[in-house]
TrEMBL record:
Region of interest (Disordered), residue spans: 1-27
Lineage: Bacteria, Pseudomonadati, Pseudomonadota, Alphaproteobacteria, Sphingomonadales
Pfam families, per the entry: Usher
InterPro entries hit by this protein: Fimb_usher, FimD_plug_dom
Top-level taxon: Bacteria
Protein name per Swiss-Prot or TrEMBL: Fimbria/pilus outer membrane usher protein
Transmembrane segment boundaries: none
Length: 824
């Protein structure tokens, strides 16, 4: 994707103000106080800010005289990322021979550094003219992530289970249906992931367990390459299809990694179902059909509802409960790459189509791959190929960005034994103009040409009923409230196939923010199975409050009316989603309802679908679908049951000091993501690979003095990784008391250090006494502690905190020091 300039105002300045004209900050009372009153050096880990922009963390040393020393190499690593090349070179020369530096070390280069005691941060003021231009990238793979993050578990694993069962009240196959369960599991050790998927259906016609694919995956972050061995998940470009291959592959992609789904795309305009599913077909945001489909491959062009119409959305609800949405368009992928960036994929092995119990491994070799590179900020070029024993295909692609829009081209040539050679071409143009007054224009044009004998490699029996397809669309937003669009689509038939044409005009109106009305007129030309005709699609959407909406649709072409309602109550754990619809056509009346409820341990739902033929009498088809989804996860010894996991996860367990408290993850005003179950753990199920995430925790019903520990954890998950995070504190005890000297008098106004005798390497805790010898020190745990004061001679106290004390305050009165021989 092309880089975009960062138009952020210079840090520390107002918009439009030069970076060099920053006002002098007034001194506060806090600024006049000493930073370090302890009399000893203190090491602090603090964030580094360029104005307000976070750059990373650094460990600084605060000296007794308030001087601040910084590690030179760490500071260099943080600054050079934002510096111009000449400034970066000067920094390396200046700091090369220094271990630590002071706050004024970079002043000769025009960089001001200061410590902000209120933010507890190191603030840098780098003049804008010294900073390199910052860019925004779609993906962060391969970019070094700075800052403190929790470490992933050394070994982690999970298994997600989505189960469902039908009960048919009316229609064919009455009674309780065969239960089915979709399984998705992964285990990660030493950076290598083993993942597998399958369908468990006891009592069905075939084997009880059908394995859908298993593979080993390793991500080389230094080279941005994903290595895979096993049942491959191929990626297609241009006119390619995605074959089922068992073998090895390498892939570089800057897009987000997709979680395992119940469907696998097999080309630009086809999809495959791995289990029986309820499928909804949306065309240009209008629901045109809801149907049940058996496992198999489906071509979008097979649906007469979508001939000549370019935008379609398929919503698939598998019997395992997983919902997936596929978006199709006649246009190819218009993603650009910045200059110098490249994406590629190479998959090689043998054909392994799905069988009754799992992939069927053949001896037929197959190879497929693609390569794309950004030659400049405007031009991206690429090529692709596929081959097996009986067919070959090669293709090229290009995307050219110009001031008037983006031009795309895909060319391909195929050679199939017994069928001959063929060719295909796709040309596209896209233009989007957005204005400050909230108006915009969008123009999409495409032309696709297919020779009679062209087919992707492996598609020996495919047919090309159309010689070419032409499509064009234009839309204009007059304001935030009114928009309109027009589409023209035409396909030229061959070998007795009739031409196909469709013309559409849409008008949208939002009279108030909570209401949206659309009206679409569609004219479809005559085909062998359909007369030419004009139809209308009307839709009204009303937002009825927070999380609730009412939708009314009318389709004159199919003579259907539909009214539906959906509502969301709460978010996260305890939330309930309800939906229902009433649909009428000349031959059928359908009543559908759905409810979904979320718990910390999983999700449960129920669907009811009932249809009445002729609109009266007993239902001709009625079924109830019960479903559930849950997961069991393991990370470095911790086990948890939670909601479904599709990529990475975190298990939050409780330390001893909060073992009786209920911990909630990511609490908010409307709910929380997960809470501790009877296992004593909670699962954060929705972490995405290579995306920063902060997991917050709370224990709302716990006592006010309960120490929850850090309260938040920052994670940057690798692919399908797990974390073990611990809520609470290992050192939750606050010790209070009064210290006496050898003569029984209060040890007044002195400072000392408390050291854990079992862990002398830990940082000692500062202790201060009042005028009557009283003190309080936080951050202790049960065990033996030594408190020493720098008197002459040294005054030493030994304190024992009992094992049963795991939280709160531990009080001791009149503690006397040890004698010179070590006795109290």
């Amino acid at each position: 994707m092309a880089n975009a300039a960062n138009n952020e105002a210079p840090r520390g300045s107002l918009p439009g103000e030069p970076s060099s004209s920053r006002p002098t900050e007034p001194l506060s009372v806090a600024a006049t106080l000493p930073l370090n009153p302890t009399g000893r050096a203190i090491d602090l880990t603090v964030p580094v800010l360029d104005g307000t922009r976070y750059m990373g963390d650094i460990e600084l040393r605060l000296m007794p005289d308030d001087e601040i020393r910084l590690p030179a190499q760490r500071l260099l690593d943080l600054v050079v990322v934002s510096a111009k090349p000449d400034l970066a070179a000067k920094l390396r020369t200046m700091l090369a021979a220094q271990a630590t530096i002071g706050l004024d070390a970079l002043a000769p280069l025009g960089i001001r550094m200061r410590y902000d005691p209120q933010k507890i941060a190191l603030v840098l003021d780098i003049p804008a003219e010294l900073e390199a231009q910052r860019t925004i990238q779609v993906a962060s793979l391969g970019v070094e992530t700075v800052g403190g993050f929790a470490r992933p578990a050394g070994f982690s694993a999970y298994l997600t289970m989505r189960g469902a069962v039908d009960y048919v009240e009316a229609g064919t196959n009455r009674g309780l249906g065969t239960p089915s369960m979709f399984l998705d599991g992964a285990a990660r050790l030493a950076g290598v992931v083993f993942e597998t998927q399958g369908v468990f259906q006891p009592g069905g016609n075939g084997p009880a367990l059908q394995r859908q694919g298993s593979r080993f995956v390793y991500d080389d972050q230094d080279r941005l390459i994903r290595w895979t061995a096993g049942d491959l998940r191929t990626v297609a470009r241009g006119f390619q299809y995605a074959p089922d291959i068992a073998g090895i592959s390498i892939l570089r992609s800057y897009s987000a990694l997709q979680p395992q789904t119940i469907t696998r795309p097999t080309g630009r305009q086809s999809f495959r179902l791995d289990q029986p599913s309820t499928v909804e077909i949306w065309v240009n945001d209008q629901l045109v059909r809801r149907t049940r489909l058996d496992p198999g491959s489906y071509d979008l062009r097979d649906f007469p509802y979508t001939q000549g119409i370019d935008n379609a959305r398929i919503t698939i609800r598998g019997d395992g409960g997983r919902v997936e949405t596929l978006n199709f368009s006649l246009f190819s992928d218009q993603s650009q790459l910045a200059a110098g960036l490249s994406e590629f994929g190479l998959y090689a092995g043998v054909k392994a189509p799905p069988g009754r119990s799992g992939p069927v491994y053949s001896s037929e070799p197959v190879i497929t791959g693609f390569y794309r590179r950004g030659l400049s900020e405007r031009l991206t070029l690429g090529g692709n190929l596929q081959a097996d024993r009986h067919s070959r295909m090669i293709g090229v692609e290009s995307i050219l960005a110009t001031p008037i829009g983006a031009f795309g081209m895909n060319l391909a040539a195929s050679q199939i034994d017994g069928r001959g050679a063929g060719g295909a071409a796709l040309f596209t143009f896209r233009s989007l103009i957005q204005r400050k007054d909230m108006t915009s224009d969008a123009l999409d044009l495409s032309a696709e040409l297919l020779s009679k004998n062209f087919a992707p490699s492996g598609d020996v029996f495919g047919q090309n009923p159309f010689t070419y397809r032409l499509s064009g669309g234009y839309s204009h937003a007059f304001s935030q409230a009114i928009y309109a669009g027009v589409d023209v689509n035409y396909a030229k038939g061959r070998a007795g196939v009739w031409d196909s044409s469709a013309y559409r005009m849409t008008i949208g109106w939002r009279p108030v923010p909570r209401m949206n009305f659309t009206a679409t007129t569609v004219y479809e030309g005559a085909t062998r199975s359909r007369r030419a005709g004009l139809s209308f699609l009307l839709s009204l959407t009303v937002q009825m409050g927070k999380g609730a909406s009412l939708i009314a649709d009318y389709d004159s072409g199919h003579q259907t009316e539909r009214i539906s309602y959906q509502a969301q109550y709460g978010q996260g754990v305890g939330s309930l989603n309800l939906s229902g619809s009433l649909e009428r056509s000349p031959h059928n009346v359908g009543i559908n309802g759905s409810a979904n409820y979320i718990t910390s341990a999983g999700e449960i739902g129920i669907d009811q679908l009932t249809s009445f033929e002729g609109g009266a009498g007993s239902p001709t088809d009625s079924r109830t679908n019960l479903r559930f989804a849950t997961s069991i996860a393991f990370a470095d010894g911790a086990v948890s049951i939670g909601r479904p996991i599709s990529d990475s996860f975190a298990i939050v367990s409780r330390r001893e000091n909060i073992r009786h408290a209920r911990v909630e993850l990511e609490p908010g005003p409307y709910g929380y993501t997960a809470g501790t179950t009877p296992l004593g753990t909670a699962t954060q199920p929705d972490l995405m690979s290579y995306n920063n995430r902060t997991i917050t925790i709370d224990a709302p019903g716990a006592p006010a003095d309960l120490d929850l520990g850090p309260g938040a954890f920052r994670v940057f998950p690798p692919y399908r990784s797990g974390y073990r995070l611990q809520a609470g504190s290992e050192y939750p005890v606050t010790l209070v008391g009064r210290l006496l000297d050898e003569e029984g008098k209060p040890l007044a106004l002195l400072s000392g250090l408390a050291t854990e005798l079992a862990a002398p390497e830990r940082e000692p805790l500062p202790v201060f006494t009042s005028s009557d010898g009283r003190f309080a020190v936080t951050g202790l745990k049960p065990g033996h502690w030594r408190i020493a004061f720098h008197t002459d001679p040294i005054t030493v106290y030994t304190v024992d905190i009992p094992p049963g004390k795991t939280t709160g305050v531990f009080k001791m009165e009149d503690i006397r020091p040890e004698k010179a021989d070590g006795r109290p």
